[in-house]
Amino acid sequence: MKDAIQNVAAGIFIKDRQVLIAQRNRTTRNPAFRGLWEFPGGKQEEGETILQCLEREIMEEFAVRCRADKILIESPYAYDFGAINLVGISGELLDENLTLTVHDAYRWVRIEDLPNYAFPPADLPLIEHIKNLR
User: Fold this and answer.
1) Cβ distance 106 to 100 under 8 Å?
2) Alpha carbons 116 and 124: distance in angstroms, whole number
3) Measured between alpha carbons, how far is residue 68 from residues 10, 88, 109, 121 in Å?
4) Which terminus of the chain is less hemmed in, N or C, by CB atoms within 10 Å?
5) Residues in CB range of 51: below 8 A, 6 or more apart
6) Which of 53, 23, 51, 28 is nearest to 38 (CA)?
7) What is the mean pLDDT of the chain?
8) Among 100, 95, 87, 77, which Cα is nearest to 129's?
9) What domain range is 86 assigned to?
10) Is there a contact between 14 and 130 (Cβ–Cβ < 8 Å)?
11) Residue 21 · residue 110 · CB < 8 Å
12) Within-domain flag for 131
């Protein structure tokens, strides 16, 4: 099943024209992603919807609950290790006391400042979409 496309949830949490981003751990399995910034989330598991996936991943990665609202954009991308479909999902954090469990850092950044951060290629269409949100 090497050719299967992996759905990956990416949380787009916006508050006061700022969006939550997280820095990949410098010991991440794939060296190409170490230290890059991303929209928090992760791989969809069998038997869960992509919205459930985001809620589970945020609990695992930050020890807080969130409400996943709706899919905003999908960004299919073929990496050398396999193809993913990065699904940008709007949501709301139900607690602001985030605890880092897998990332090196997190930040709330102004939407217009997103291009100043290094992201994996699949995330770039999400940034463009977010910049156009009103």
Assistant:
1) yes
2) 12
3) 10, 10, 20, 23
4) C
5) 9, 68, 69, 70, 71, 89
6) 23
7) 95
8) 87
9) 1-7+17-102
10) yes
11) no
12) no
Residue 111 in tokens: 């939407």
- Tokens 């090497």 correspond to 2
Instruction: Please give the sequence-ordered ranges of beta strands (E in DSSP) within the chain, or none if there are none.
Output: 6-15, 18-24, 37-38, 41-43, 66-79, 82-93, 103-110
Q: Write out the two tokens for 67.
A: 């409400």
pLDDT digits (tens, 9 = 90+) for 105-134: 999 999 999 999 999 999 999 999 999 986
Report if pTM > 0.85.
Answer: yes
Q: What's the structural domain count of the chain?
A: 1
Query: What gap in Å lies between CA 78 and CA 72, rounded to an integer?
Result: 20
- Domain presence at residue 50: yes
Question: In this structure, are residues 106 and 40 in contact, taking their beta carbons and an 8 Å threshold?
Answer: yes
